[in-house]
Write a structure and sequence with these properties.
Rossmann fold; 9 helices; globular
Length: 295
């Protein structure tokens, strides 16, 4: 017989609303509303909502894996166990990336090594093609290593060549992480025909419709005089943006922000795009005037 709940029965099971830090400015972009002195005020959550499953999507080289790795290092350095399921890149390459990122972030790499558990599905057809085998392995790692955060990079790699099953596969992993009370990140890729600024990923909207929220990363090549004038960047440079597309668990900043991947391989979120254009656009206009003078 199907079970139902009276709402009050769920109070003891409801998760508390607080943030799990990412080590980026995203931590200030999720918020909750609290009453103070008769007024409702926004209070930053301090990270991704606890027990949320967030989808990071974007075109190739937009910074998805960089952000996921930065989250992993931040959590591990704080003493929390992270399970990193690598589907695209062999685990030994992940080790190198996490070590360099730890150095750039000033993290204690001995703690990072101790607190990150890796499952390498990139070189295992069984783990990549058989969701049950991967879920069983993840359950063992979570139980044995007392994991609290899970990253799958990428979830798209688990339904390559079978996108008709994308929704079913994503739902399996989403329900699994909820059952094991994990805060999770799914990295998902876009097909070339998909709009870069949308939340859609390979497999359609399977990921975005199931997860608790989506963060869209994008990049634009500055290639016209208009771009130079608008963004204040030289031709040939890349403008990267990040936007929280939605979150079911709490409020969030809905603006598009400009960020850069530093020379040390970390995410640095700079300013809302509108403010960036105001600040840099003036510089761009001056550059454009000089170009016209020369011509």
């Amino acid at each position: 017989m199907a079970r139902y709940y009276e709402l009050r029965e769920l109070e003891s099971k409801a998760p508390k609303l607080f943030g799990i830090p990412t080590g980026t400015k995203l931590d200030e972009m999720f918020f909750k509303i609290e009453e103070e002195d008769g007024k409702f005020v926004k209070k930053p959550l301090g990270g991704l909502p606890y027990l949320s499953i967030m989808n990071l999507t974007g075109v190739p080289d937009s910074g998805k894996s960089v952000l996921a790795e930065q989250f992993a290092v931040t959590q591990a350095n704080a003493g929390y166990r992270v399970l990193f399921v690598t589907v695209e890149s062999p685990a030994n390459f992940l080790y190198t990336a996490l070590k360099h990122k730890s150095e750039a972030m000033g993290a204690d790499f001995s703690k990072v090594e101790e607190n990150i558990v890796v499952i390498d599905a990139s070189e295992s057809d069984e783990l990549r093609e058989n969701p049950k085998a991967l879920l069983d392995t993840m359950a063992y790692a979570i139980r044995e290593k007392k994991v609290t955060n899970v990253i799958i990079d990428s979830i798209t790699g688990l339904y390559e060549h079978k996108e008709m099953m994308a929704r079913q596969i994503v739902r399996q992993f989403f329900n699994f992480l909820k059952k094991w009370r994990q805060t999770g990140i799914f990295v998902s890729q876009k097909r070339s025909a998909q709009a870069s600024e949308s939340a859609e990923a390979a497999g359609g909207l399977a990921v975005a419709h199931i997860v608790d929220g989506t963060i869209v990363l994008d990049k634009k090549l500055v290639e016209t005089r208009w771009d130079v004038s608008l963004y204040g960047l030289p031709i040939g440079s890349v403008l990267r943006t990040i936007r929280i597309d939605g979150c079911r668990l709490c409020g969030h900043d809905s603006r598009t922000w400009v960020f850069e991947i530093t020379e040390f391989g970390t995410i640095d979120i700079i300013a809302p795009l509108s403010e960036f254009i105001k600040r840099r656009g003036r510089i761009g206009e001056e550059k454009q005037e000089k170009i016209e003078e020369v011509e």
